Amino acid sequence: MVRLVAVKPLPHYTVWIKYDDGVEGNVDLSYLVGKGVFAAWQDPRAFEQVRLGDSGELRWGETLDLCPDALYLRLTGKSPEQLFPALPQAHA
Predict the structure, then answer these.
(1) Minimal CA–CA distance to 56: which of 11, 30, 18?
(2) Which domain, by its residues, includes 19?
(3) Cα–Cα distance between 60 and 58 in angstroms, integer?
(4) What is the pLDDT of residues 47-88, one digit of tens each?
(5) pTM score, two decimals?
């Protein structure tokens, strides 16, 4: 299991993230702005308050967070089965 170890907000609702396996890069989160709980990000200063949560998630305040595993998949292009080999395989 990889763990998110660093985050830095970048312009245009993008974050730079780094994992303990050395994978790092930028993830564009602009597609979330204004949708549901992400309405808070309409103020860019709110987005810039990103931090690592106690469980390795990206966190904004106490009510908004993003799963580090989903971000890893997005960053690397891997499938959930590649990250979690014990997942049951889907049958066609």
Answers:
(1) 18
(2) 4-77
(3) 7
(4) 999 999 998 999 999 889 999 999 999 999 888 787 777 767
(5) 0.84
